[in-house]
Amino acid sequence: MGFLSAAILSAAALASLAAAASIPHSNVKRQVSQLRSKYDFVIVGAGTSGLTVADRLSAAFPNKTVLVIEYGDIHFAPGVFDPPTNWMEAIPNPVPSWSFFSLPNPDMGNQTAFVMAGQVVGGSSASNGQFFDRGSRFDYDAWLDVGGLEFAGKSIKWNWNGIFPYFKKSVTFTEPPPAVAQQYNYTWDVSAYGGTTPIYSTFAAFQWADQPVLKKAWKEMGINSQGECAGGDKEGICWVPASQDPLTGRRSHAGLGHHADVVPRSNYDLLVKHQVVRVAYPKGPKYGPPLVEVRSLVDNHLFNVTVKGEVVISAGAFHTPTVLQRSGIGPASFLASAGIPLVLDLPGVGSNLQDHGGPSVTWNYSQPYSFYPLPADLANNATFKSEAIAAFDDTPSHGPYTIAMGNSAIYVSLPHMTPNSQAIINRIRQIATTPGAAASYLPPDIRSSPVMVAGYIAQLLTLANAFSNPAFPSLETPWATSVAPASAVSFLLHPLSRGTVRLNLTDHVAQPVLDYRAGSNPVDIDIQLAQVRFLRRLLATPTMQGYGASEIAPGADVAADDALLAEYVRRQSILSFQHPCCTAAMLPKGRGGVVGVDLKVHGAAGLRVADLSIAPLLVGSHTSSTAYAIGEKVSF
């Protein structure tokens, strides 16, 4: 069961985003002397999922106290494309964020992955690209499948039917005005939505003038349009809403919708500028809830918070496993090397790291290309930029600055991408069924763990079955404009390689060490070769040929040779599209799981995890909508 027995909906009214970020609330605490002697619930991390849980708990149980502990602080969170920036420039006033560089990836030309995460109240929902899609129904059905018979028999289900109501509940979707819908040919289905939560999404009141060029070319490649891609069926061309306020056009995020818009509540406290070091079980993990050990970032003072009910760790894919590891919960061999006394041997803690990544196909145009407006007009036309800023400040907001990173993408399955799909799928199954093969692709420190090997084999078999489904997308390519030099990026939606997140052995409270191990399972390269070859077909369409599309990279000679194209993929891929997950996976303990379907940590009384680290498999979408849904589902 979740925390709540009935749905509790916030009735908070829409507030100005800029104003809400600056209003001081009595529930914001900055030092231990301001805290209560004990709390019913303590939530570690004021991010996308954590604030969702805090909002729902504090509303449902007004007589129970809730404390959220956050490393960062309250900040105004600008959109990814707000005035006065030009298209996709760095914004001048970003929120504080963590910046991570992984260890070198030897299977990807020794490249490092660069990853950012919001270090702010609101977490990464306050700093992401605002692209607010969901996975397909088959992504979440795979979550149930990979849990095997043990999870199939549970009353709590994390398949599509089990999570879809919480997707609907988690966001308030506003239909675009009829004139805007007609102008851009937007399509949607209101039955995919239905929430009244002050987390907002809508379609931009603008598209760049050349946005239809690629859409026409995708159709010429045989890709069909989906009328609505948030209702479970996603393979094809999709319109994707943005996480933005429909009136102001500004970013909508958890720091507003689940904090500023719902406080003050007398039972809801937020402690900022503090780091949770660990949870402690003085009498052992069977006797909970644990104490929460906290460190002040101002004076380094350590203190404990006493909890009466439960602790929910919601610190994200990188920090949730490190809190657990500092608590003595994790792989026994690693904890011994770190000098941390073992509390629970759960080798899945900090393992199973997955993220989206991939290379691009790039091109130029040789024919005249006359559209207005295009992104360059913001930089070159002062009148247009002035009008764009005025439009953004209008009510309702409209114009270029409402587009965030864009609203359109294609999602393509492996069978629709390549005639070699069955050979790729067979290779995955061969790895899963050949003794010792699957283990050889795991990180060295867990290759000898029977439960981690069993879990990885289950994942490979689940993904092999999913890849066979022509309605299961394995490629994403988002776009908003095709102005030259242009590119079509290849998202590897379901990587087979697995990485790790581990404590820094020289400083346990410093940032963790990330080992992405991208490309360590060679089938990832096979899939990326198919994706690049598929995207190259775009340039041969009548529409693109009409504009004289001329390929820059990888080029025909490289694409014709498997070895050369594989080298291109290894050296030209972006290794993180900022969607890390799965490092405290919801799987049976016998498959390397960290939490069960109730998101309780295996063997740890009074302790749950609620964030993207619980995903057993990476979903085929940007991840913020799933983070909100996790917070909603665990709360009920």
Protein architecture, described:
This protein has a domain at 34-80 and 126-197 and 251-351 and 580-634: FAD/NAD(P)-binding domain (3-Layer(bba) Sandwich). It is 30% helix and 17% strand. It has 636 residues and is of the alpha/beta class. The strands form 7 sheets. Strands 1, 2, 3, 9, 10, 11, 12 and 23 form an 8-stranded mixed beta sheet that branches. It has a 4-stranded antiparallel beta sheet with strand order 8-16-17-19. The active site is at 579 (proton donor), 622 (proton acceptor).
Short description:
Helix content is 30%, strand content 17%. The chain is built from 21 helices and 23 strands.
CATH topology of the domain at 34-80 and 126-197 and 251-351 and 580-634: FAD/NAD(P)-binding domain
CATH architect. name of the domain at 34-80 and 126-197 and 251-351 and 580-634? 3-Layer(bba) Sandwich
Biggest sheet overview: 8 strands, mixed
Helix content: 25-40%
Chain-averaged pLDDT: 94
**Number of DSSP strands?**
23
User: For this structure, what is the CATH class of the domain at 34-80 and 126-197 and 251-351 and 580-634?
Assistant: Alpha Beta
What's the CATH superfamily of the domain at 34-80 and 126-197 and 251-351 and 580-634, by name?
FAD/NAD(P)-binding domain
Shape: globular
Q: So how many helices? A: 21
Compute the CA-based radius of gyration: 24 Å
Strand content: 15-25%
Structural class: alpha/beta
Distance between the termini: 7 Å
Low-confidence runs (pLDDT<50, min 5 residues)?
Answer: 3-24
